[in-house]
Amino acid sequence: MKHSMKNTLKPAFMALGLALMVSALCHGQAQWSGEQGMKGYGVNNPAMAQVPGTNILQLFYQGQDGGLWTQWRNTNGTWSSELGLGGQLNSSASPTAVQLPGTNILQVFYRGQDNHLRTRWRNANGTWSSEQDMGGLLNSDPAAAQLPGTNILQVFYQGQDQALFTRWWNNGTWSGEQRLGGQLFASTCADVTDGSCYGNNATPVPIQIPGTNALEVFFRGSDNQLRGFQWQNGTWTQEQDFGGTLTSDPSAAPVPGANQIQVFYRGAGISASVFPQNTSEGGSLMTQWGNLSFWQGETQMGSSLLLGYWCNDQPGDLQDCEGGYSASYSVPKAWANPGTGDLWVFYRGQDGGILYAAPQVWAKVKRNGSWSADQLLGGDPHLSDIMPTEVPGTNTMQIFYEGETCPIIGGCNIGFLATQWY
After folding, report:
1. What is the mean pLDDT of the segment spanning 105-123?
2. CB–CB of 159/138 below 8 Å?
3. pLDDT digit string (tens) for 255-294?
4. DSSP states of 114-131
5. Is 310 a domain residue?
């Protein structure tokens, strides 16, 4: 079914890991810090959240032991030691963290090793609960959002049948599962060069439509189109079709100064061999935007987002790739920077190296109604996406990701937590 938003328009890695390259983006006196390593090692995407009632930023990630780990930024700018919270996450899982509405409780959700929805929470006094098994069978990471105009927290995920499932917390009680329907993308092939069938299973993306009490839940459909369900006035619409061609999950953010949301994703790409061992495929940065009364269909922004697929043999081994290939599509991550009117989008770029696969952090910013050129922030992200947030109580924006350093001689240092700030 086509979506219900009106007046729809349908208009027509690699780099040497030898040195940190930093390009400053000027906003007053502000500029990017350049990459800094953090304590600990994590895999997949980290999650960040403000500790309710404080100016403390807390970071969550899957550790190399498969458990849930955390560390936090104190108000004086120092970081705590790592704290292992336990549990076992699915090897491809990334956690998500959100405040329980109307409380000072911070709740973390993740897909367990058994594919159940699992959770634990930080109480207002700083203590942590034990792990709770919420059941279900997940085929993706969970995502959570507050229903606008309520104190209800809603969790969304892809079920084993690829449909969108949800459950919600209301006044201290969790509902059972509800199947909303639809068909989310699930990987159906091992061909890393074919974006129509390869990639991570789709994770839903909930976002409030500014100026309304409507919640839109976007996702990459099984047909690789942008699809969604909308909640308004206590009811859910049927599945909506926004069109487009996706080779990644979408991300979404409110457009500063306008009652609109903007969605970003990686479009189709063209393969290009850079070196016998290292190949990359750049897909264009694509976007759509609008609100309940208007929707602008797919528009190309011109950037080249990474799909890197490369040989697992040791650096410098120029023989055949007996070790197989690893690959990851870059998901662009959008962030509306509070108090500035700036809309940012971060991604791993297709950087055209000659010996070893090492993508770098790139960004674009929409300021005063116009998008900047692609900006190189440098750094060495591995297979995670670039996750942005605001540092509570400051005017600082910070990004986190799984880092990687690969000298020409010797193995790679993979999985260290890395950050940059602005």
Report:
1. 98
2. yes
3. 999 999 999 999 886 544 444 444 445 678 999 999 999 9
4. TS-EEEEEE-TTS-BPPP
5. yes
* 3 domain-assigned: no
CA distance 331 to 93: 15
The CA distance from 405 to 19, in Å, is 9
pTM of the predicted model, to two decimals?
A: 0.88
Residue type, 142: P
For 40-79, write each residue's pLDDT tens digit: 899 999 999 999 999 999 999 999 999 999 999 999 999 9
Residue 133 lies in a domain: yes
In angstroms, the first-to-last Cα distance of the chain is 42
Q: Is the residue at 2 inside a domain? A: no
State the residue range of the domain holding 18: 8-421
The total of other beta-carbon atoms located within 10 Å of residue 325's CB is 16
The CA-atom distances, in angstroms, between 278 and each of 13, 16, 157, 321 are 9, 12, 34, 10
Confidence of residue 131 (pLDDT cuts 50, 70, 90): very high
Cα–Cα distance measured from residue 178 to residue 163, given in angstroms and rounded to the nearest whole number: 10
Handedness of CA 109, 110, 116, 119 (dihedral sign): negative
Place of tokens 């930023």: 57
CATH assignment at residue 27:
2.120.10.70
The separation between CA 134 and the C-alpha centre of its own chain, rounded to angstroms, equals 23
